[in-house]
Amino acid sequence: MKRLTGQDRATTATWRPATRAIRGGTARTEYGETSEALFLTSGYTYDRAADAAARFAGEQAGMTYSRLQNPTVEMLEQRIALLEGAEACRTMATGMAAMTAALLCQLSAGDHLVGGRAAFGSCRWLTDTLLPKFGIETTIVDARDPQQFADAIRPDTKVFFFETPANPTMDVVDLRAVCDLARAHGITSVVDNAFATPALQRPMEWGADVTAYSATKMMDGQGRVLAGAVCGTEDWITNTLLPFTRNTGPTLSPFNAWVVLKGLETLDLRIRRQSENALAVGRFLEGRVPRMLHPGLPSHPQHALAMSQMDACGPIFAFEVEGREQAHALLDGLALVDISNNIGDSRSLMTHPASTTHASVSEEKRAEMGVTEGLLRLNVGLEDPADLIEDLDQALAQAGL
User: Fold this and answer.
1) CA atoms within 13 A on the CB side of 162
2) Of 230-239, 344-353, 354-363, which gets the smallest average pLDDT?
3) Hey, CA dihedral for 47, 51, 52, 53, is it positive or negative?
4) Contact 310, 201 (CB under 8 A)
5) What three-state secondary structure class fits 223?
6) pLDDT of residue 361
7) 292-307 pLDDT per residue, tens
8) What does the alpha-carbon distance between residue 104 and residue 243 come to, in Å, rounded to a whole number?
9) Rounded to whole angstroms, how far apart are CA atoms 126 and 369?
10) Mean per-residue pLDDT for 317-345?
11) Which strands sit side by side in the sheet containing 228-232, from one edge to the other?
12) Quick one: pLDDT at residue 12?
C-alpha cells in the first residue's frame, strides 16, 4: 500500500480538521480504491525466511500479525492522531479496553493515582476496585477543583485520570490548570475525552499527555460497533503502551476500524448539529425540570470554562427530576426518544444512570459522584429538535412535570 500524495507529517499538519477527518492516514493499494480498503486478515506472509526474521527483529518494515498491525487499523490510528494533534495513536477493541490499557501500561504496585470523582461507572471500578488489587493506591477528588489534585499529590503519584465533561454529571475540569500541575510534578495526565471528541476539544492543546476514547460513541456515531483509542507521544505509545497491548491483546478488529473510519468522515458535521440540537432541547427543559446540568447553558456553574475549552457544547447533558420513580415514569412516557444506556448516537437516547451505567457503583459512591436517583442523561441526536421537544413535553406531563 502507498500513502496518498501529501501524507507526510509536515503537509498533514497544515490541513484543517475537516480535511484530516476525510483524508488523514489514507493509503491505497495498487487498485486505486477511493474508500479505504478493508483487510480481513489475521496474519501475513513473507517472501523469504530471512524477511520474517528481519521483521520480527524490527529491521525490516512490514506487518507480522494483526494483533500488532493491520493496514485498515493503521489508517484509523493515523487519522485519529491527526485529529487529536498527537504524534501517535493505538486503537483498542472497546473504550474500556482503552482506559484500562492507558492506566495499567504505566502503573505498578506501589504507585499512586489521583482520579476524578465524576466518571463513567466502569472507570470508577478501575480506580476503586481493579487498581488496588494490583497494589496501586488511588485517591478520588472533586476534579472541578484543581487544588484538590494538588493536595492529593504524593511522592509516588504517577497519574492524574479524569473526564471532562464527565459522565453523567457533566462536571468540567480546568484542563490547563490540572495538566500544568501534573507536568510540573512529573505526573502523566490521562484525559477521557469521549464526550467531546477531538472535533470539539483537544486536551493536548491544554497540556494533557494522554487522551483516551470510547470511539464507540461519537467517532462511530451511529451505534454500530465498539472501539477505543489512546493518543500520546510517539515515545509513550511505542515504549509504554505498545508493550502492554502487544502482550495482552485488546485488539480492534479491522472491520470495526473501517466502520469508525467512515464515521470520522461525518464527525464534525454530526457533532456540531447535535450540539445545536442539544442547546435547543436544553433550553426547553431548563424551564420544566428542577435542575439542569448542561455546560452549553449559562446556568451551568462551569459554563464559561467549558466554552473556553470546547468548540461547542456537545450532544450530551443531564438533568434531575424528583427521584427514581419520576425518572422512570418520564422514560416510560417517551415515544420518539429511545431508552438506552449508549451515547454519541445519531438517535436521541436517554438513560437513568443510577439503575444502568452506574448500577455497579455503591449507593454511597454514587452520592459522592452526584449520581442521584433523579438524574437522567440525554444524548440528543440528529432528529428535528422540535420533534424531540414535543416528545419530551408529553413525557414530562405524564411524569407530573
Assistant:
1) 33
2) 354-363
3) positive
4) yes
5) coil
6) 87
7) 999 999 999 999 999 9
8) 11
9) 15
10) 97
11) 88-92, 228-232, 210-214, 188-192, 157-163, 112-116, 137-141
12) 83
Three-state SS for 121? helix
b/e for 172-206, b at 16 or more Cβ within 10 A? Answer: bbbbbbbbebbeeeebbbbbbbbbbbbbbbbbbeb
Among left, alpha and beta (phi > 0; psi -120 to 50; other), residue 343 is beta
How many residues comprise the chain? 401
Under 8 Å between Cβ of 115 and 77: no
Model confidence over 169-204: pLDDT tens digits?
999 999 999 999 999 999 999 999 999 999 999 999
Contact criterion met (CB below 8 Å) for 380 and 277: yes
Max distance between CA atoms of the chain, in angstroms, equals 74
Q: Kindly state the average pLDDT of the residues 361-388.
A: 94
* pLDDT for 5 beyond 70: no
Residue 351, strand partner residues = 377
**Bridge-partner residues for 375, per DSSP?**
320
**What are the DSSP calls for 337-355, one per residue?**
SEE-S--S-SS-EEE-GGG
pTM above 0.90, yes or no: yes
Q: Are strands 112-116 and 137-141 parallel, antiparallel or unpaired?
A: parallel
Domains of the chain by range and CATH? Answer: 2-264 (3.40.640.10), 268-398 (3.90.1150.10)
Q: Which of helix, strand or coil describes residue 134?
A: coil
Instruction: Annotate 107-142 with b (16+ C-beta within 10 A) or e (fewer).
Output: beeebbbbbbbbbbbbbbebbbeebeeeebbbbbbb
Mean pLDDT of 61-71: 94
Q: 150-161 burial, b for 16+ CB within 10 Å, e for fewer?
A: eebbeeebbbbb
